[in-house]
Amino acid sequence: MPLRLLIINPNGSSAITQLIKSGIDPHLGPDTLPTYWTCPDGPPALQSQDIDQNADTCFFLLLDILGDYDAFLLACYAVHPLVSLLQARVGSKPVVGIFEASVDAALRVLQPSQRFAILTTGEAYEKHLEAGVVRLLGKPQADSCFAGVVSTGIGVHDLAEESRGTAKEKMEVGVKKLLGKYGHGIAAICIGGVILFGMEPFIREAYQEQLGPKAGQQIIFIDQFEAGAVAVRNALRKK
Questions:
Q1: Is 78 left (phi over 0), alpha (psi -120 to 50) or beta?
Q2: Helix axis angle, 51-62 to 82-90, nearest 10°
Q3: Fewest 10 Å CB contacts: which of 27, 42, 126, 217?
Q4: Architecture in CATH of 100-223
Q5: d(CA 144, CA 165)
Q6: Sequence spans of domains, the chain
Q7: Is the pLDDT reported for residue 1 higher than 90?
Q8: What is the pLDDT of residues 74-89, one digit of tens each?
Q9: For 182-238, how does the pLDDT look when each residue is reduced to its tens digit (9 = 90+)?
C-alpha cells in the first residue's frame, strides 16, 4: 500500500501549490501517493507577522482529514507553528517542515569549522529565520555553524516570465550582500523560500562572478523541497 503523504501549502495560491508540486514530485518514490492541499482561507503570500493566525486557520481546516494520511510535509519556509500543532495531534505519524528539514540537510554536508547561510525572500524573514535557527539548534551550535540570513527582495510578482531578469538582478544583489556581510567562509546555502525554487542557477552564476568559477562551483545549495522529501522518508524508516 502506498504511503499517503499530505503536502500542505498554507497560503491560498494554487499557482504556488503547482510550484511546490514541481519541486517535490521528482523527489518522491513510486511508493508515495502525494496529495497537495492549498489553504482555502490562506493569503496569496504569507507574511511573517501572519503566521500564528495562519497556523490556527490551517489546523482547524485540516482536522477532519488528518486520519486519511500517513505523513505530512509543510511546504512553507518559515518557523510555522502548524508543524508542532500537527505533531501534537497525529501521534507517531511524521510531520516535517521544509525549513527544519533544510537546516538539518545543511548540517549534514558541513565539515568542521564550516558554516551555512540562508537566502530568503523579504527582509521581514531575516530575523524570523535567524531566531528559528537559534531555537532549532541552540545558541552554541548556531554560533559555530550558522552565519545568518540575507533577503533578496524577490516577491511573487517576480515569478512571471517577463520578470525573470528582475529576479536574477535581485538575486545577484542578495549574493553580494551575503558575501559582504559574512565573507567568503560559507560552504552551504539554504534556498529559503518557496518562490525561490528554480533560481539556483542565478545564485550559482552570481557566486561565480564574485568568487571565480572554481569557488563558485564549490558552494553547496540545499534544495528545500528535496530536504523535506528526504526528511519524510527518513522519519518513516525510523518508525
A1: beta
A2: 30
A3: 217
A4: 3-Layer(aba) Sandwich (3.40)
A5: 36
A6: 3-98+225-238, 100-223
A7: no
A8: 999 999 999 999 999 9
A9: 877 899 999 999 999 989 999 889 988 888 888 778 889 999 999 999 999 999 887
- The per-residue pLDDT for 61 is 97
Smallest CA-to-CA distance from 125 within 76, 166, 159, 170 is with 76
Weakest-pLDDT range from 63-67, 106-110, 160-164, 207-211? 160-164
Amino acid at 177: K
What pLDDT was estimated at residue 224?
98
Class of domain 3-98+225-238: alpha beta
- Which DSSP string do the residues of the chain spell out, in sequence order? --EEEEEEE-SS-HHHHHHHHHHHGGGS-TTEEEEEEE-TT--SS--GGGHHHHHHHHHHHHGGGGGG-SEEEE--SS--THHHHHHHHHTTS-EEEHHHHHHHHHHHHPPTT-EEEEEESSTHHHHHHHHHHHHHH-HHHHHHHEEEEEE----GGGGSGGGHHHHHHHHHHHHHHHHHHHTT-EEEEEEE-GGGTT-HHHHHHHHHHHH-HHHHHHPEEE-HHHHHHHHHHHHHHH-
- Cell output for 148: 545568518
Rounded alpha-carbon distances, angstroms, from residue 75 to 24, 143, 225, 228: 9, 27, 8, 8
- pLDDT the model gives residue 149: 97
Question: Which percentage of the chain shows pLDDT scores above 70?
Answer: 100
**Cell match 482536522: residue?**
63
